[in-house]
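Give me the 3D structure for HEAT repeat domain-containing protein.
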Amino acid sequence: MIVPILLAGLGGVSLLCYARRERLALPKSFLPSAPVPSPVSRQHLHLYKGGELNAVAVEAAKSHWREKLDRGNSHIADVALRPGLQFVIQVRALAELGGSEAAKVLERQLGRDLSDDPIEQSWYWIDLAQGLREMSHVKSLPSLLQHVDKALELPLGHLYAAELVSFPAFQEHLNNPLSSHGQACLRVLHATLTGIRQGYLSASLYVEAQLGEALHTLSEACPDSVDPLVARVFLESLRILRRNDHILQILREDPSKAQAYRWQSAYLKSAEPIIREYLHEIELDLGRNLALTRGREQSDLLKAIYDFHTDSSEIIVQLLQKDMIADRSLGFACLQHGKTTRATSALLYYTRTILNPKRSFWFGVHSFLETSKARVNENLAAIKALRAHPSMEAETILLQLTHTDSVYRPAALASLGWWEPIHRKPVIETLRRGMDDLATRDICLCALARLGELAAISELQNRLIDSNAEMIHQTIDLLMDEGVTYLWPDLDTLTEHDDTAVSSHAWEVIERMRENFLGPLD
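Predicted structure for HEAT repeat domain-containing protein (522 residues):
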């Protein structure tokens, strides 16, 4: 069966493609910094659209490798397996040959930095993971898990996760979720569930990788202590449960697969009481543990705090002031869910320093004149978090930021219109001026729609009924990213669209909007 997948290509060029490997789907977007796909990326796009490798080239590579392996010369693999268009052919040849020596050749490549292009590096690691999975070489899974952190940070990390979660021995590591391999498997499982929910991966993967059974296994082995990775996986599992009807709608043309999904869903449903008990009042535990952690464990806790909409603003502000949070942008992002006056005061103070860098060093020891990527991300996170803290001072700061030519102008425009303006006229005028700039037009259009401007709402409604499916998908994403709940009824209408990709996309956005209103656990 050939499954249609919507792929937004590099540089904003989108196409409707068809992948024979229905267990995977291509991500909706790539890095915006790469406007033209490299030859390696174009090759893989061709393969994922149903293309085939040159059979003659694969057979020639098999003959070459058969001779080398028979002679015990597998150590020359680092020379023979060079990055480029031949890489996937060499990997496919080794996978078809099989055997422990061929597997070792592929495993050694995991430790190599094969490209400076993050998208190409993603493809190379996906090729290796797929080759080892197709060989059913269970002993290779630990080697693949060692590179999970780096692989999942790359643009195509969901595809890497999809390969690993399909290994026969994957579920065994979930019996000990606090071990190093167990933690890596939790990262893989979370990335896979998120990918399925967001449409990056095919829903059929849930069946083929037996994810319902995997989650049931995890529920029976869940630790007594609070672990942020276990919590995040359980949260994603509840999200999947809420989307059961939508997923079955996607699989309706394949009755056998739909029935298999119901079977996997039954495993997860039986684990739901344990999952909910584990997550009961977990917000308090996440905040308490934050001050006791550093490094990756602290980042995991912050991500969980953000996912659960936890108000841990008191401790987060303290740690930010003492420069005890490594990923400061993540710390500021969590303040978006802060309900205390301290969270609001901290965000106001910090965003004022963006306008006046020499003012103070209150938040950490870094110089506010620093323009590193980390500092820019930190400032952007603080500006975004300010949208959840309505006040006259917040409105004034955001308006001042929109009058600069800095990288912060789009973020400030996007943070306007989340509450009824204290002074409506200057806010509306600022947003209308932003409509004249192509780079900020959509941001301002959505802000005006949030404020009930009929012309803006009408334009977005027209985009949702466009004859171009690409335009519909882009608009649905825009409504979610910018929180335009005025068009909820229009999204509800799209859930009955003839195009399954459109209807499932609309369902997902409605579910996420509902979660923003009611909370992730309700």
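Strands lie at 3-8, 14-19. Let me know if you want a second pass.
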